Amino acid sequence: MPLARRLRLADAVAIGLGSMIGAGVFAVWGPALGVAGSGVLIALGVAAFVAFCNATSSAQLAAAHPVSGGTYAYARAEIGPWAGFVAGWCFVIGKVASCAAMAMTFAAYAAPEGWARPVAAVAVTALVIVNCLGVTRTAALTRVLVVVTLIGLAVVVAAGAGAATTTATPPPLHAPTAYGVLQGAGLLFFAFAGYARIATMGEEVVDPARTIPRAIVLALGGAVVVYLLVGSAVVLTLGADALTSAAPLADVIAAAGWPVGATLVRVAAAAASLGALLALLTGIGRTVLAMARESDLPHVLARIAPRHQVPRRAEIAIGATVIAIVLIADLRGAIGFSSFGVLLYYLLANASALRQPTAARRYPRILPVLGALGCLLLVSSLPIEASLIGSAVVLIGVTARAVRLRIGPRSGTPTA
Length: 416
Known about the structure:
Layout: H1 9-20, H2 24-27, H3 29-36, H4 40-64, H5 71-78, H6 81-110, H7 116-132, H8 135-166, H9 178-189, H10 195-200, H11 208-238, H12 248-256, H13 259-293, H14 312-328, H15 334-355, H16 366-379, H17 384-407
Helix pairs in contact: 1-8, 1-11, 1-13, 3-9, 4-9, 4-11, 4-15, 4-16, 5-6, 5-15, 6-7, 6-13, 6-14, 6-15, 6-17, 7-13, 7-14, 8-11, 8-12, 8-13, 11-12, 12-13, 13-14, 15-16, 15-17
């Protein structure tokens, strides 16, 4: 049974913005400034350019393949089932870790001391229920969360502009190096990775060939503007003081002497975390649905609930996995692992776009080439531990699929 097409341009843009303008904007500046120094805005530009190249590949593929699953479906169609499986597996494992991180970030801002994990688990449960009630409810809630987040960030930008003209000059940042800028770009890249959520929901978008490319470009462009304004406010107001700040945006508010603004930032951070978590859960659910349809994941997850037209079993399975991680795991080491999976996912998206015929091409061929090279460059900047763990988990998935194929053809087994 196909999914119902209910998402229009405004819905798709809201889901993309909700994915990109997430909890990272409230926490990423300290680590990024620590490696990139005064070159942090250059690193932001590098990350945005790589994201743009990847976005055009995703948009081009989504227009030709308006189905659920994102790069899992695209790579399967353009390169082959194995490439599709690796893309889908990387997306699922990387983004499940990201979901847990978003839930914990929300709890850090919203929960009383000592209650972070239970509150995070409750948040995941609530958003899974929202997703199970239908995609139009998901889009409506995402729009509300995006508006709250943007209001909070607007307050930060305004406070930063005021503080920069009325307070003392902040401590200068260290001079950038090429490798430092690259590391900073690797950290900042994932602020833009949410545009893939639009593509993974291609089966639910009205007029996908027209809507998805427009939504991806609009959402990415909006995120770039927001990050540039917020990053400038942090650099001009805090300078090197941001390196030791756990909440740099709250410190921007404090430097401006706006005590009420601190509450607004806390509310906005919680809303951003929930918005990113909601969009992530939705996108993973559609990828799991697509993989289950091909039996690359258990076929029982391919069932669509007839009343609300959503992959309810897939959503519940993902939610349960995220809750388990939230309750038992230390997530700090999972960040690099998540990055590894997502970069491989986009690498395969660019490779799939390169395989498309000329008639399907909407953008210059050089863009997917640059996108693939950018993904390789950024993944090479990750810590070696993250690369080793990520490679091991990908290998586990590949081995499991190879074993299923070797067992022999049967009903419900994946095609090679």
